[in-house]
Amino acid sequence: MFEKILIANRGEIACRIIKTARRMGIRTVAVFSDADRDAMHVAMADEAVHLGPPEAARSYLVIEKIVAACRETGAQAVHPGYGFLSEREAFPQALAAAGITFIGPNPRAIAAMGDKIESKKAAAAAKVSTVPGVLGVIDSPDQAVQIADEIGYPVMIKASAGGGGKGMRIAYSAGEVAEGFARAKSEAASSFGDDRVFIEKFITDPRHVEIQVLGDKHGNVVYLGERECSIQRRNQKVIEEAPSPLLDEATRRKMGEQAVALAKAVGYDSAGTVEFVAGQDRSFFFLEMNTRLQVEHPVTEMITGIDLVEEMIRVAAGERLRLTQADIQLNGWSVESRIYAEDPTRNFLPSTGRLITYRPPPEGSFGDVTIRNDTGVGEGGEISIYYDPMIAKLVTHAPTRERAIEAQANALDAFAIDGIRHNIPFLSALMQHPRWREGRLSTGFIAEEFADGFKAPQPQGSVALRMAAVGAAIDHLINERKRQITGQMRPSRFVRFERERVVQLGDERFEIVIGESDTGVEILMNGDTWPVISEWRPGDPVWTGTVGSEVISVLVRPVLNGMWLSHAGAAAETRVYTRREAALAALMPEKMIADTGKQLLCPMPGLVKAISVSPGQEVKVGEALCIVEAMKMENVLRAERDATVARILAKEGESLAVDAVIMEFA
Fold first, then answer.
1. Residue 596 — left, alpha, or beta (φ > 0 → left; ψ -120 to 50 → alpha)?
2. With 142 labelled, which of 282, 288, 477, 523 sits at a CA distance of 20 to 30 A?
C-alpha cells in the first residue's frame, strides 16, 4: 500500500480524498494556486505544494507542475479527483514515465471512454444502443448547422473532453447552433484545454440515469447500482439520488450488466460511471462514460456502504476487488443537493465573495437518518471567480425515499450561509415540490417548473403558521432579554403573562396572543394553541426547536426592526408589533424601487469577454449584447426589450463587480 499520495485537485473533492487516505494511514500532499493558498484542503493535508497563478490553465492543469510536486514530496501516487486532469490520457502517461502511480483507470481506458467522441465509437462497436448523432469532430459553425439540420432539432452540442455542464449547449434552431457552437468551443478550451465538440440528437423528456462501476487490474468488474441525476439546470446536475425511482429490478440488472460489459471491453480498472439517457418507459441509450470519480458518488456510498475512494486506492495498489456482484446490496435511499455560490433569483448566475457565515447542519446518524456534508470551505473562506462555484454537497440517507427527502429538506433549513448568494432557497423549495416528491422527473424539470425563473415563495398554509409562531417566539425572547438588561419590571416567574401581538409575515398578518408555558411559550393563533420550545439565542443563524409537535429549523437573519425568516423553501421579512404599532405601520408608504430599465447591469462578478454592439445601434428583444465569463462559464447577456444603445461603459477584458453598469439605452 502507498505511504504518501498527492491529490491533484482542490475544494471539496480534495478534502474528501484526504479523509479516506487519513483513515487508511496514508499521508497526503495537497497542491494549490495563489487563490487557494488558505483553502481547507491545504490545511487538511500533511504537506502542500504551490502550483502558480489562480487560472487553472497555469496551475491545476499543468501536468509538469504536478509531476514536479510528486518528486519534491516523494508522493508515490496521485488521485486526480474529478475535473481538471482526471480524464486526460496524457496525465497518467506522464506519471507512469516518472514512476508514479495514477489512482484511476489506465490510459487506454481513458482514451477509449473518457473522450466523449471515442466512447460513443467504442459503445457502437460493442453493440450498445447510442443516441443518434455525428461522432466526428465539428470544425465550423456552418458544418454544425448542416449536421443539426440533418439530425433534426433539438440537438445537443457537447465538448468532447467535457463534464460538469461545461462546453454544452442545447440548440433548437440553426441560429442557436451557430452561437452554441462558438460558446461550447470557447468554454471547452478554457475548462479542459481541448476545444473539440460534437453534436447529437437531444432526446425530449429524458431522464439521466447512471451506473457506478468498479474494476480492478485483474479483470474483475462490478456495478454498484444506479443514480438518478435528472434534476439539472444548464446541463449541470443539481440534485442526485440513489437508487432511481424510475427503475425496476429487471431494468437495473440489464443496465448494470451492459455497463459492466462495456467496462470489460475497454479493460476498465478503477471507479467509473456509465451514463444513460432513459425514456419514461424505461428504455435507455448509452450517453457517455466518465472515467473518474463522479461528483455525486456519495449517494452510492450511502446505499452500498462502500467507500469508493478507498477502493480506487486499493485497486491502484494492485489489490483485487474485495467484492463480487452478489455482495452488492442496496440499502435504503440517499439524496444529494449540490450547494452552489449562485443567485437563483438571477437565473442562477454565479456569486463570489467571502463566507461571513457558514454553518452546515450537524453530520452523523440521528435515528434512522444519516446526514453527510462534503465541503471544501469554512467560515471566512472566499469563493473566487476562477473555479467551479460548488460550496458543498449535502447528503441524506434514510430507509425510504420519502424519509430521505424529508431529511434533506430539514437539513437544508438548518444550513446557514451568508456573505454570498447561494441556491439553498431554491433547493429547499424544490424539496417541497409535488412533482419531485412523486418522482416524476426529467432533465427538463427545472426549465418546465420554473419557466419564469425562481423567486422564493411567500409562506403559505401551515408553513406560514409555523414561521409566524417562530417569529413571535424570537421577538418575545429578544424583548425579555432587553427588559432584564434595562432592569425594567417584568412579571414574576410564578405569574403567567399574556400579550397581544400582530405578526407581519411578508404580506400576511397574524393576530396572536403569546403566553408563558413551563417549557417555553404558547401562542394562540387562528383558534389553535401552538407550544413553541427552543434553546435558540439571539445571534444564532438557525432557530431549531418544536412548533406544536413538529421539530423544525428556521434560518434567521436580523433586518431593520425585524428579522428575515426562511423555512421549507419559503422566505419573508417578519416584524412583530403591538396592536397599536401594527395600525400605524399599515399607514406607512411603500418605498419605491429605482428604475434601472435603461441600463444593462452585470449580473455577477466576472470578466467581459466580448461586447457585441456599439453606441447608436438599435437592438431587438433577445439580441446578444455582451458575454461575461464567471467561474468557467460564458454567459450571454441579451436585450430584454427593443432599444437603442446610448453608451457603453465597460470594456472587453475588464473585470466587473455585480450590478456594475455595462451599457445604457436611449
1. alpha
2. 288
Judge whether 63 and 84 are in contact, CB under 8 Å. Answer: no
* Count of residues in the chain: 666
Give per-residue pLDDT as tens, 112-128.
886 777 777 888 887 77
Return the beta strands (E) in 341-488 as ranges.
Answer: 342-343, 349-350, 353-354, 357-359, 364-366, 369-375, 382-383, 390-398, 416-418
**Among 462, 468, 479, 417, which Cα is nearest to 574's?**
468
What pLDDT, in 10s, does the model give residues 268-317? 999 999 999 999 999 899 988 999 999 999 999 999 999 999 999 999 99
Q: How far apart are CA 552 and CA 546, in angstroms?
A: 6
Where do the domains of the chain lie, and which CATH numbers do they carry? Answer: 4-103 (3.40.50.20), 132-201 (3.30.1490.20), 209-449 (3.30.470.20), 461-585 (3.30.700.30), 599-665 (2.40.50.100)
Backbone angles phi, psi at 72, to 5 degrees: -65, -35
Predicted pLDDT of residue 514: 94
Q: Find, among 138, 184, 199, 195, the residue nearest to 161 by Cα.
A: 195
| Strands, E assignment, 256-316 | 271-278, 284-290
Give the tens place of pLDDT for each residue, 329-365: 999 999 999 999 999 988 888 888 899 999 999 999 9
Q: Which residue has the cell 505511504?
A: 3
pLDDT in tens, 574-602: 999 999 999 988 888 776 656 667 899 99
pTM value > 0.85: no
Grid cell 460511471 in the structure block, residue: 273
Q: Is 362 helix (H, G, I), strand (E, B) or coil?
A: coil
How far apart CA 656 and CA 602 sit, in angstroms, is: 7
8 Å CB contact between 184 and 176: no
Look up 336 and say whether it is catalytic: no
Q: Which residue has the cell 424539470?
A: 445
Q: Which of the following is catalytic: 288, 296, 522, 629?
A: 288
